[in-house]
Give the backbone structure.
Amino acid sequence: MPEEPQLERLIAKARAQLKEGRLEEARSLFQQARDLDDLEPDAHDGLATIAYLQGELELAVEHFERLTRLDPRRAPAWTNLGAIYNRLNNHTRAVEVLRRAVQVDRTSGPAFYNLGSAYRHLKQWSNAVPAYREAIRLEPTEPDAYISLGQVYLEMKNVPQATAQFRKALELRPDSKRARKGLAECESAVATETSKASPFGRLVDTRMLAQGQQASVVSTRVLSLTERLRDRRAVDNLSAALELEGAAVDQSLAGALSEALSQLVKGLMLANKPDRDAALTQGAEEYGRACRELGQLTTSLRRTVRQLRDHEGTVQ
């Protein structure tokens, strides 16, 4: 075994060189420390960091993998390793590593963000959403998480939620090109939906509906061209809104709410009481947030339905 003072001095000097940006000098010192003791976690941590900074991703993976075996409770090592696997497009392995990262440290925003990114590249939207939302909860002033969550919602065709995320990102970083591009895509999606207009005007006689007659009964009054165009635009807009808001409710049920319930069930199955209590507390918080989000979505959906019903009466 090497003398501790000598090993500690090498590590300290290496860190100082790394802080100054002298990567080769730092690499040499960290390598000397590793030669003295190949089981020294800090030596592998330093060599992994330098390899990453110099674009040697495979070498960085090698050292971070060794580091996580030597010190499995070192959460940043798991997070950095997962981020590199994302860079290498090995998103399946990234998910495995980053799930371990959030188990070790439930307060790491970067770990949840990178986990969300891994799920997003695997097109596992229902897993990406809660991961990004947790990253936002932990670091609410970080715009990148809002942007990435907005991109996931766009993939899910949930334009209202995507729009909200991009707008929040712009509040935090007004010059963000990614957020502005995402918001423009949302506006384009809405415009596309509203342009799919039917060439026919229609008129449902709500007085007949009130008298208990079939909903298919149509008024015999013929709409003028102006009325038909106005009616068509209004119905198209409301129909597009209903479709988007209905999709948002569906995604909320399948995504955040389902994930929260799953976390609660997993928590109940833990044998260790402190771990079980912590998991249940976390699951309860996530379930509460999911319920509040679902409540907001259903309120918006009901409001749009009322607007559509009110519109039916205005064209009589």
User: Anything to note?
Assistant: The chain has a mean pLDDT of 82.
